[in-house]
Amino acid sequence: MECAEDDCDGEAAVRLHVPWDANREVCASHARVLARQDGVVAEPLADAEEWR
Questions:
Q1: Fewer CB atoms inside 10 A, N or C side of the chain?
Q2: Which long-range contacts (CB under 8 A, 24 or more apart) does 43-52 make?
Q3: Per-residue pLDDT for the chain (52 aa), expressed as one digit of tens each?
């Protein structure tokens, strides 16, 4: 599964639970930045290659 962010072809490794928007799966790099926003919860995807 690819990262949900525009212009990114990285593999999704994290599901972001975003209270003011839809949840989405993103790569680890985008998760590091986006998860710093208040209220966003990052959940690692168990089957993602990034965590193996």
A1: C
A2: 43/14, 43/15, 43/16, 43/17, 44/13, 44/14, 44/15, 45/12, 45/13, 45/14, 45/15, 48/11, 48/12, 48/13, 48/14, 49/11, 49/13, 50/11, 50/13, 51/13
A3: 899 999 999 999 999 999 999 999 999 999 999 999 999 999 999 877 665 4
